[in-house]
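Ligand: 1,3-dihydroxyacetonephosphate. Inputs:
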Amino acid sequence: MNVDNTGGATPSMTEKDMLIREIERLKKEKKAVVLAHYYQRPEIQDVADHIGDSLALARYASTLKDVEMIVLCGVHFMGETAKILSPDKKVVIPDLEAGCSLADSCDAEEFKKFIDRHPGHTVVSYVNTSVGVKALTDVLVTSGNAVKIVESFPKDEKIIFGPDRNLGNYINSITGREMVLWDGACHVHEQFSMEKLVALKKEHPQAKVLVHPECKKALRLLADKVGSTAALIDYAGNSDADEFIVVTESGIMHELEKKFPEKRFIAAPPEDGGCACNECGFMKLNTLKKLYECMRDGQPEILVDEKVAAAARRPIERMLELS
Ligand code: 13P
Ligand code: SF4
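Predicted complex:
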């Protein structure tokens, strides 16, 4: 990376400008596409070719043409999903340590025992899972299509759902099903405080409340809209309201404020005010510098054992067909 050294004739570039310029150059040189989740840092969202929720990122990964490298700015399971759907492409992620507490709450061996304890049940899993859990699954869902996919099964279908108990409980409440739930959760979404949300609603009585389904039931009951990150953004755009309380990871604020500058978005505080626990530390491990470096070096690369990938591909493709 060269620093502009024209004796001041051209204003000197900040490190951020230089990184952005290099990322743009590398996109062309390496036929790379940058995909970013809404929870990524603002500067990563801004440089991405496409931003989206996990469903949109999976769709992009399965349909990209004339691309040799997918740069997945999100967490590890999102990179794995992209690799499974595009095995012929190189998939890199800025930080390989970007995991997910929800995916970690469901060990594949334990999940297999859970399945064995429920013979005759269809296995529906959230996409926030390891590839090993995906391989044990009949159909995957994201928060953007979960209700629709579960409703596609006959009313009396026996279903087990993992790993998120909150999303599972939400689907049960909407569909009237009694799916057996794995007892997992996301440490970020579990942190939001109902008491603080009630207080915030009192301060902003006109505000609509947007809640991600990974939040606890008590918070969902206070929502005007429960949905995936993309669904919450769409709702804010289509609503007549001009004030919203946002109960999900704080990275989404960037897209909301960028897309709807005339509206006001208030981030709901977590239980312990002052901490940054409404930030997903895993998502925030990715930085602009690491993004540049991973494009330059072509690593860290996401690699998935082909045998496991083949088993995991089927439930992902089924999800894309059903949604
Ligand atoms: P979305 O599918 O709504 O983007 O959510 C992904 C996620 O990890 C939520 O914590
Ligand atoms: Fe996983 Fe929660 Fe982070 Fe989403 S916010 S990636 S579910 S840890």
